[in-house]
Prior knowledge:
Strand content: 15-25%
Largest sheet: 8 strands, mixed
CATH class: Alpha Beta
Number of helices: 10
Strand order of the largest sheet: 1-2-4-3-5-6-7-8
Helix content: 25-40%
Shape: globular
Radius of gyration: 17 Å
Distance between the termini: 23 Å
Structural class: alpha/beta
CATH architecture: 3-Layer(aba) Sandwich
Amino acid sequence: MAIINLEYYSEVLGMNRNVKVIYPEASKVKGITESDIPVLYLLHGMSGNENSWLSRSGIDRLVRKTNVAIVMPSTDLGFYVNTTYGMNYFDATAIELPKVIHNFFPHLSTKREKNFIAGLSMGGYGAFRLALGTNSFSYAASLSGVLTFNGMEDRFDENAAYWGGIFGNWEQFKGSDNEILSLAERYEGEKPKLFAWCGKQDELYLGNEFAASELKKMNFDLTYETSDGIHEWYYWTKMIERVFEWLPIDYVKEERAI
Length: 258
């Protein structure tokens, strides 16, 4: 297994970007071949960056014996969308980044059935936004994700400069492709399989309950789980292992040191 820091120039954003890649070593992973390796795009939350999953969860240890490559980009505070202030993070992450990755790592699979996406908090929103806004990912997982902004309208007024810069005002946001449930309702083609978890003590819990109910009404294949937990890395580190078990990969659970 190798941990690689890739710096590249993003034509979409007009600036250099960094992405972390965990690349499996064929000789040490049972069943893996040197071509067509499954890929998981793993997204950070607000205040995070491309280093967050590595530094906070020890994810490199979790996948040491597993046949999947992990790509960890950064969207700054841009919510993985094409913002109203002109920074097109959706295009940069959903369209441009996979091309960059496959240019540098040609053995990674380009097949939809072997490309997955997951994230926490803002990244949970991003995982569903990218999966439902493209036809590139067959599985998408959200941990404590912002899957609906219903009941959070006051945030658009309290910090209008920030949220307006990301989504526009509330009226512009509602019904747009940036609203997960509206986007899901319009989705055409083969639906991605979805996974969502949120802690019962998390302020986003009721929003996840509502979003899960609505997605199931739309006949999405959604695995929805809850347990005690708050909006914190302790729970995300535990639940990313659950995501690995859910994904169609040969996940080999690494025993924790005592």
